[in-house]
Amino acid sequence: MSVVIVLEGAGPGSFTVAVSPLAELSACLHALTESGHHPELRDWGRTVTAGASAELRAGLRRFSPLWSALRWRGFYPGLDGTRTAGGPTAGTGAAGRAMTGKAAAGTDRARTGPAPDTAGPPDPPGTGRLGPGLGEQLRTLAGLPTGRFAELTAFACVNGYTRFDFSRLLRSAEQRAALEHAAAALSAGRQELAAQLLRDPEGCRADLLGFLDLCRSEFFAEAWAGTEPELTRSALAVRRRLATGSGRGPGAGPGPGAGRDPGVRLGPGGTEDLAEALASLSPDSSRLAGPPRVVFDKLHHSVITPARTPVILVPTRYNSPHLVVKNEPGLPPVLHYPVDAPEVGVTLARSRMLALTDPHRVRLCRLIAREPMTTLDLAARLSMTPPQVSRHLRALRDLGLVGTERSGRFVHYRLDLSAVERIGQDVVRALQH
Known about the structure:
Elements: E1 2-6, E2 15-17, H1 21-33, H2 42-50, H3 54-62, H4 134-143, H5 146-157, H6 173-184, H7 188-199, H8 201-244, H9 271-279, E3 285-288, E4 293-297, E5 302-304, E6 311-316, E7 324-326, E8 334-338, H10 346-355, H11 359-370, H12 375-382, H13 386-398, E9 402-407, E10 410-415, H14 417-421, H15 423-432
Helix pairs in contact: 1-8, 4-8, 5-7, 6-7, 7-8, 8-9, 10-15, 12-13
């Protein structure tokens, strides 16, 4: 299965690169409740949960289906149909509306007028910001039509949207029954969240907004202050790559003119530049022709055509190493990419493990792990011909497991012990990517 991005007819104007605090908050929540996926964040997670209020702990349990395997689409930009492509601060459409629905404390939810603003005060306009602030994003969620909120939340409750239609969830007995049945088959937590959504969708939304705002005050404001500059640098670097194919990676620092909008003019390589920029977001990507496209190895299938449906790219630090692809019906697709994408993907990790199942290569590696050796030395020690040894060494070099040292006219081969030591860790990270 794979996610295919077809680039025929697309240009840099088909892509938006936005920095999103709400998306990064979802990544933080995922790291808090799925600590096994992010061992490097365990100490941070312990610190947050140790100081968390009872309300925050309850919310982490109650709403966890929204940031598990299938990330809730409400966390990502584009809900209101606008794009954050041009200026430093983008309009958000519905974000300007007063929040509706009851506050987390449980006030009346009459829709006859604006309700208390549980999202807090508006974010101040920031110089160089590449997207709306968290307060604006929470107000966008508050202004989302009730049916749309219920539809997107139902998708998260059942961990998928390819087999379900929840577009009429609040009016269709059949769709309500499908949600109840599918959620009950997955977990008690999903069943409980689905039940509240069906019983009181506006109450569910108000409670969720109150929880997200509580996250901001208890831990996320500090996390975001330390993360936003890095995400902004990555976003600017990717924007330049989409326009020019400059060869800079997603985490590269800004270069000359980084603050200028790249515009919509294709660089010298055309779609090749776009393909290079997109492929750099994941080690499990490939570039194909006829038509030009980038393929990401994922556990679901989706075809995205940016020429028809513009794509939003969102950098993340706390979500690393995951590359999350969102492609819900009727909304712009989103790629939530890590600023430090792992160098080793599923294909390379698997190939390295398979390479070391060959007994001849294992013996060869044992020899060159102790000291560098030439092809002739290895052939004599292993009772093999030099061409046979060369083929094994070439395969191991192509996989990044063996390096060379030249001494005069002799080439010595050595095992890259650090690469071998990382195989287990690389496999774990690759299986999550």
